[in-house]
Amino acid sequence: MKITPPAPDAVEMLRLPARAGIYACSEESARALFHAGPNAGFNAYRIDLNLALDETKLHHVLSRALHFPEWYGHNWDALADCLTDMSWNEADGYVILMQRAEVFANADPAGFSTLLGILRDTVAFWRDQGQSFWVLFIGDIPELGRLEVHT
Q: Which residues, by range, are in coiled-coil regions (predicted)?
């Protein structure tokens, strides 16, 4: 991936918990926000869901990409617990970039819906803590609003 300097306003936008959420976006916007994450003091993760063909594989992909602790239970409750307790990877905020989510969405629509629900709850949890938690899906995800950053 080509290194792209962060958009001037991307760092400031990331720092606003009220703006944080789950969005679909273009590769360009995702890249700008992903690279702005460390400049905002955030941990930034890029997750390729190409291998997430079912719930079990999704949990494996997420646990590796997010560096979950050994006690991670590879189920929905454990995912919710880990995403709301990032004590092993503390930061001022978080940016998670999801690519090829359509693979999991098509393979397991109910699981994808559950994942989106957990991510929404996670964003709300961190917002209540005064921190930003961003999840960016590259591409068109009908269930999500779009976010574009002009670089």
A: none
